[in-house]
Design brief:
Distance between the termini: 106 Å
Strand order of the largest sheet: 3-9-8-7-6-4-5
Order of helices and strands: HHEEHEHEHEHHEHEHEEHHHHEEHEH
Bound molecules: pyridoxal-5'-phosphate
CATH class of the largest domain: Alpha Beta
Number of strands: 12
Shape: globular
CATH topology of the largest domain: Aspartate Aminotransferase, domain 2
Structural class: alpha/beta
Largest sheet: 7 strands, mixed
Number of helices: 15
Number of domains: 3
Length: 426
Amino acid sequence: MNPRERLEELKKKSLTLNMTRGQPGHNQRHVIPRDFYPAALHELGLKIDGIDITNYPVGSPDLKAIQGLPSLRKILAPMVDLDPDLICVNIHESMKLMADYLYRGFVHGVGKDAPPWERGKTKFIVFVPGYDRHFAMLERFGIEMIPVKLTRQNVSDNSFMDRVEELVAGDPQIVGLLGVFRYSNPTGFTFSDAAIKRMAEMKTACPHFRVIHDDAYCVHAFRGKRAEQLSIVTASKEAGNPERGVVFSSLSKIIAAGGTIAFMGANEEYLEFFRSILKIEQITPDKPKQAEIFYFLNNYPGGLNGLMQAHAEELRPRFDAVERVLQEELGESELVKSGKVSWETPDGGYFVSVDVVPGTSPRVIEICKDAGVAFTAASATYPKGMDTEKRNIRLAPSLPEVEEVELATRVFALAVQVAADESNNS
Ligand SMILES: Cc1ncc(COP(=O)(O)O)c(C=O)c1O
């Protein structure tokens, strides 16, 4: 037979072989010691959702699989009230995912038709008091921050949104807003659905305005049920601005900080654009890690809810201790009665926000430091540390033992009084 005839013979076999990509072969797995992968993954047969978790995808990447293992997405998506198809599970930290979102904003734009942002001409709205790492990140990107103050009152009647709407309507360089809308860092405030809707619907001078919700504490209630909240992603879709809402979260404060995964949620209109970028940056996400997390959460008694209840049992006594000591030491004081000192009593999140006598926050921190108790630097809760009133201090009681939280809070409460006395006498 000549080559043509031999080829015709082989074609009769209806071959479906694939030699497109440089993938490690299945037999190569035997070279890897069995205990390299945890037993849980062997129990899953090193496969999940029909996907080989130890290899690249076969042929060209399945674009939906690059969003993360479907079984894991099914567990995580309800955390942010979204459909599993609308989340993308990726690396281990939401901060890095958020930073990547910003990088892409400057390189690719934040949507199919959105031109890349220009350095020096990009502003974001942030809420104060707020999260110091958000501020540091935006600052490093050269993004100007426009602070909008949150108070118990203006969050409960949504009037903080008047200011947000006014700002975004008037300045096309304000391209986005970044904040924690549920159990906010550090105040513990949760925005109402009406506020979320206003963010989704508001008229913005920038045609591709983005609202980024860092939902780091989405299931982190420690007193009763978690705060339900309309998703900014869903609200944006309903408002006819489907690419506007983006949400980020992670398992850092659920399973292991630095050792698990994070995810982003957005509407399909943005995800389609996002996948078109991701598929050239990445061939496959960390599937063994994702499968391990799926296995763990799927087998935990009571699932994710059971796990969060167990965390709540650890956290609640610490937050109760802060409240108890602040009440004991300051509750009946003139400082509190006159409104010069106040604090929030959150039901979730990781912080307690305290406003001390105006002008005294650096001194309070200094007095505590002298007594051997460290708190976040005064004014850290403001962009570039610009708390002009020098009032706000963030307490973080999650790590120390309950007795240590009590002691540290007592030192803090006494320092508040000493600093107030000093400022009266100066
Ligand atoms: C509001 C908020 N967002 C994000 C993070 C960081 O989360 P990750 O570990 O997923 O980057 C933290 C950590 O304290 C946080 O408080």
